[in-house]
Amino acid sequence: MARILVAYATKHHSTAEIAQAIADELRSRGHDADCLDVHDAHARGYDAVVLGSAVYMGRWRREARRFLSHESDILALTPFWVFSTGPVGEPKSAPDEDEKWLEPEAVIAQAEALNVREHVVFGGRMPRDPHGFIESSMARNTPEEFQDLRDWEQIRAWAAKIAAQL
Ligand SMILES: Cc1cc2nc3c(=O)[nH]c(=O)nc-3n(C[C@H](O)[C@H](O)[C@H](O)COP(=O)(O)O)c2cc1C
Predict the structure, then answer these.
(1) CATH number, residue 109
(2) Backbone torsions φ then ψ of 45, nearest 5 degrees
(3) Domain count across the chain
(4) 92 pLDDT higher than 70
């Protein structure tokens, strides 16, 4: 059994729910998982770390970037995995062009330099409580069927793969 930290950075909670599903799957496979807001998380003392952030305007949340930098010494010595929560709305016909909007390049380069085991992108959910004009118009203009693109089967399968490697 491994002791695993699942740390998340969120604005509208959809990333927190993904992190919770990952932690639940890890626990169901016999591991001990703590699921924490990255503000309250430290990598020290864990056998493995899963770090996830929502992506806004092509960037990870500041607190997740900070965690990656501040905890880099420990992460370099600890198996760790990364996910980004992002895409919502109608799937694009040429998703490759948008790669840097899905996974911020600099963050992924930093994680790779620390030997991240894997980094993945999960579909996100439009804010249910949009703040300001941009969020409100994005939410209003997204058809209901594309508001929540989180694929729980995909998320749990990813966590199961992590569980098997520990
Ligand atoms: C103003 C705004 C900007 C966004 N920018 C991006 C982006 O650059 N890339 C992306 O993949 N998703 C983007 N999204 C989608 C969010 O990442 C998605 O809604 C995610 O699930 C939010 O996570 P949270 O609920 O944990 O905050 C954006 C959403 C909003 C409302």
Answers:
(1) 3.40.50.360
(2) 95, -5
(3) 1
(4) no
